[in-house]
Design a protein that fits this description.
663 residues; single chain; globular; Catalase_clade2; ten-stranded antiparallel β-sheet; Hemocyanin, N-terminal domain; catalase activity; oxidoreductase
Length: 663
């Protein structure tokens, strides 16, 4: 791939230390790096050993404080291309010029766990995008769910305190299945809609590449004439949005806690670049009050059937980071990083985030100059009168650092809106100063029921099982009962299932009368493609080489990613064995295909384990030639291909899961 402008800007900061002489950070050549300076061979280390002190001090400070939330993250570079100009709605240059390619940096993350936690836990996923535009950096700081737990940012510390490991024993890690979280949920019922999303399959995505992203908040587009529209942002993965099953997700956490980042990294390295289309929902200001919900409420969606998503461009992630710490860890996202043409609304959660993010970067990244870290620098020039502070990199020349001034001809000068200067939308605001919330925010259950109504039967079953697991982990009986009673307001039958499982009293509420559904919310309605699906081809090292080569090539031609798995490493003909039964596991693949068997009992045992695991997780399984007997007991089940027909197997893999099996 050719370098974009951000790549070129970062080039000056990239250093290859290979074949170089060691120096201190001041450039002094080092003569010895194994022994500290001592007063005698067995004497004390001397303070004057500047090399030791520099080396040790730097090591002591190599770790910056991890993010309170979104600590576990992985990122990649890419570019955004616009399909059609949006100048009717916004004057943001990168959304008006279809000839422009805008560099981007995207960080995916889990929310709850620490930096060392597993990646396939049930959790919200962050989906934060930094656009390096010619008018400055624009950060779309979103999640893989379009709503949030709370309506007002003042409650965010309470939410995080509740969902994090409990302070008296620091357990459980990266999990919401404990007392304090469900105590928070039951007593802060605005969380109902978000909990339905979290308990759904969306909480355990198959990969970052198969995960939707949402801006969550309602923002404003403002065009060159000053006319504003409300807008919500969507990222739609080209491969569709798909998920793991719960048992599979738990096993992957043990087998490969880096599963999601490995998938993203490997995909980019093999040039299977992840792609996401950018969609917007646009609403005229005149229609602000035409719905049965408040469009500024972050716990509500705009149903796509009511406000269609308009696809306007595509983002492609095409380069991995060179250094995770320097880029992924030090990148600073902020909802307040906007460009002319994009503005805020009075969403009270968004308003609080506009303060919180700057405050967070100051403590994490060591002061006010975090914008000078290479990954955070805009590609356009920046000039102002801000000076000094921790980690200042800019060397400002001249005596003037204030505005207004005569000595520098009153520069740097401001820009008018016509010259590209940012101008806030002039919304009319009036009212008393109150610490309260609009009545339009008080419906907490209608859209939670809408979400439930929109799910397929299988998805509903998974949601119920997730509730039973999570609330089943709660020790306090009252919290269990409160949680069950709360979700009776969403769906009475769901609440009864939960109550029966966790030992609570069945609810007596009549449930919700809402029957509306939104088909766009169900992942069963998402696009399904074979591209980049990972298949383990199990092969006996003494099997038919020509047949194996033919199968592998046909799989690759259809877009599948293939790894040959056998009992030992080596080659089968010219085909390399990528993994052994010990070094990998069936949960790490989208499908299993047995190309040839062995008479060895251990080989057969491992084959059976791989096939059974995949079968129980509703994945495609197939076999050919002397291996078809291994599928005999499962013959006739959906997604079981024992004919050796490659097209039939590819179709089975494309379906993602086969829920109608007799397991």
């Amino acid at each position: 791939m050719g370098k974009n402008r951000k790549d070129e800007q970062l080039e000056q900061f990239r250093v290859d230390d290979r074949n170089k002489k060691m120096t201190t950070n001041q450039g002094v050549k080092v003569s010895e790096d194994e022994f500290s300076l001592k007063a005698g061979l067995r004497g004390p280390t001397l303070m004057e050993d500047f090399h030791f002190r520099e080396k040790m001090t730097h090591f002591d400070h190599e770790r910056i404080p991890e993010r309170v939330v979104h600590a576990r993250g992985f990122a990649a570079h890419g570019e955004f291309e616009l399909y059609e100009s949006m100048e009717q709605y916004t004057k943001a240059g990168f959304l008006c010029d279809t000839s422009m390619k805008t560099p981007v940096f995207v960080r995916f993350s889990t929310v709850v766990g620490s930096k060392g936690s597993a990646e396939t836990v049930r959790d919200v996923r962050g989906f934060a995008t930094k656009f390096y535009t010619q008018e400055g950096n624009y950060d779309l700081v979103g999640n893989n769910m379009p709503v949030f737990f709370i309506q007002d940012a003042i409650k965010f510390p309470d939410l995080v305190h509740a969902i994090k490991p409990e302070p008296h024993n620091e357990m459980p890690q990266a999990s919401s299945a404990h007392d304090t979280f469900w105590d928070f949920v039951a007593n802060n019922q605005e969380s109902a809609h978000m909990i339905m999303w979290l308990m759904s399959d969306r909480g355990i995505p198959r990969s970052f590449r198969m995960m939707e992203g949402f801006g969550v908040h309602t923002f404003r587009f403002v065009n060159a004439k000053g006319i504003a529209h409300f807008v919500k942002f969507h990222w739609k993965p080209v491969l569709g949005a798909h998920s793991l099953v719960w048992d599979e997700a738990q096993k992957i956490s043990g087998k490969d806690p880096d599963f999601h980042r490995r998938d993203l990294y490997d995909s980019i390295e093999s040039e299977d670049f992840p792609e996401y289309e950018l969609g917007v929902q646009i609403l005229a200001e005149a229609d602000e009050f035409t719905f049965d919900f408040d469009v500024l409420d972050a716990t509500k969606i705009w149903p796509e059937e009511d406000v269609p998503v308009k696809i306007i461009g595509k983002m492609t992630l095409n380069r991995n980071v060179d250094n995770v710490f320097a880029e992924t860890e030090q990148v600073a996202f902020h909802t307040g990083h906007v460009v002319p043409g994009i503005d805020f609304t009075n969403d009270p959660l968004l308003q609080g985030r506009l303060f919180s993010y700057t405050d967070t970067q100051l403590i994490r990244l060591g002061g006010p100059n975090f914008h000078e870290i290479p990954i955070n620098q805009p590609v356009c020039p920046f000039h102002n009168n801000q000076r000094d502070g921790y980690n200042r990199m800019t060397i400002n020349k001249g005596p003037v650092s204030y505005h207004n001034n005569f000595l520098a001809s009153n520069t740097p000068a401001t820009s008018s809106p016509e010259e590209g200067g940012f101008e806030h939308y002039q919304e009319k605001v009036e009212g008393r100063i109150v610490r309260n919330r609009s009545d339009s925010f008080k419906d907490h259950f209608s859209q939670a029921t809408l979400f439930w109504n929109s799910m397929s039967n299988v998805e509903k079953e998974h949601i119920a099982e997730a509730f039973c697991f999570e609330i089943g982990k709660v020790k306090n009986k009252s919290v269990k009962q409160q949680s069950v009673d709360m979700f009776a307001n969403v769906n009475l039958e769901l609440a009864k299932v939960i109550a029966d499982s966790v030992g609570a009293n069945p609810p007596t509420s009549s449930g919700s009368a809402i029957t509306k559904a939104s088909p766009a919310l169900s992942q069963e309605n998402m696009v399904k493609k074979p591209s980049t699906r990972k298949v383990a081809v199990i092969a006996n090292r003494n099997g038919d080489v020509n047949q194996l080569g033919k199968v592998v090539q046909e799989f690759k031609d259809s877009g599948l990613k293939v790894e040959i798995v056998s009992d030992k490493l080596g080659n089968i003909g010219t085909l390399p064995i990528a993994q052994t039964f010990i070094t990998t596991d069936p949960v790490l693949y989208d499908a299993i295909y047995v190309a040839s068997m062995s008479d060895d009992k251990k080989f057969k045992k491992e084959c059976n384990r791989y096939v059974m695991e995949a079968f129980n997780h509703y994945k495609a399984i197939g076999a050919t030639l002397n291996a078809v007997s291994i599928l005999e007991a499962k013959k006739g089940n959906p997604g079981v291909v024992n004919s050796g027909e490659v097209p039939a197997f590819v179709d089975a893999v494309t379906a993602h899961r086969h829920w109608n099996r007799e397991i």
